[in-house]
Design goal:
alpha+beta, Jelly Rolls, Arc Repressor Mutant, subunit A, 2 domains, 10 strands
């Protein structure tokens, strides 16, 4: 079993000698980097792609999404994904480091946008024909700046990125009923909760412990999660554990018992029951489905 590769932005063509931003038509990107992107892999950068024609499937962290004209995908560093694409697929793809965006704005961060704010939020939007036509104009302008740099190109690219993310955020909030925060207080607590889960999920699986870390009651924390995300804190913790389990099952040579132990379960039989309860299959069955040959 091969380890899933992590693509670094320096492996792609750069703008003005930098290694922090990249943009291309999807067909050219596919032709140039075919072998590396059609098998499961990760990135160390933020990625956005707008598809303007073609069909297919985009699998992100083991969730499968349809590709069609008007579908937009926004991905965080570290997510596992790959494509299944029709021959006529086309669009525009860009990616960049966190620093490239954040350094351009004193009062704005890449994590202000809902699709990057939390891995719990959806990574895809589906635009109407009108919406796709409007937004594709700015993707094309971004590509033009990248391929034919001029004075203030970096500043213009940053401005175009901000505009695109703002428009996508408006669309996101207009279609999402769950998975978004309802106030700045909710937003702050849930973001802090996700950070704490990310740091501690292998060792700590008790909602009460996370409530204590946040200095709020377990009941209040569960209410915040339920009202904003439609999930309990236990569900959020378990989902993060299982995501890591899935990643390890397809990308490492560790035994099932070793994976179970690494994720904080001393008893593999118990871990296997938890995995099957939440996913519908055993770790062994899942590994066979997604194993990288």
């Amino acid at each position: 079993m091969k380890k899933i590769s992590i693509l670094n932005i320096s492996e792609f063509e750069s703008m003005e000698g930098s290694v922090d931003f990249y943009c291309n038509t999807f067909s050219n990107h596919l032709e140039t980097h075919h072998k590396s992107i059609l098998i499961p892999h990760k990135h160390d950068f933020f990625l956005t792609v707008l598809f303007t024609q073609g069909t297919g499937i985009h699998e992100i962290d083991f969730e499968r999404y349809p590709i069609e004209a008007g579908s937009v995908f926004m991905m965080n560093p570290g997510q596992t994904h790959y494509w299944e694409l029709s021959d006529d697929v086309e669009g525009i793809i860009f990616f960049h480091t966190q620093e490239f965006f954040d350094i351009s704005f004193t009062n704005q961060s890449i994590f202000d946008f809902p699709f990057f704010y939390s891995l719990l939020n959806p990574s895809v939007l589906f635009l109407s024909g009108t919406e796709c036509g409007k937004l594709s104009h700015f993707f094309e302008e971004l590509l033009s700046e990248y391929t034919s740099p001029q004075l203030f190109t970096r500043q213009k690219v940053s401005s175009l990125l901000s505009y695109i993310y703002i428009e996508l955020s408006r669309k996101f909030f207009s279609v999402q009923e769950n998975g978004i925060q309802k106030s700045s207080t909710y937003s702050r607590h849930l973001r802090n909760l996700e950070i704490l889960i990310e740091q501690n999920y292998k060792e700590e699986k008790s909602p009460a412990a996370y409530a204590e870390m946040l200095n709020i009651t377990k009941r209040h924390l569960n209410r915040l999660a339920q009202e904003s995300l439609g999930k309990t804190v236990t569900e959020l913790i378990t989902e993060r554990v299982l995501l890591e389990a899935k990643r390890m099952l397809v990308s490492t040579s560790s035994s099932f018992s070793e994976i179970s132990y690494d994720l904080g379960y001393g008893d593999y039989a118990y871990f296997s029951r938890v995995f099957k309860k939440w996913t519908g299959v055993t770790p062994s069955e899942f590994s066979k489905q997604y194993r990288v040959q």
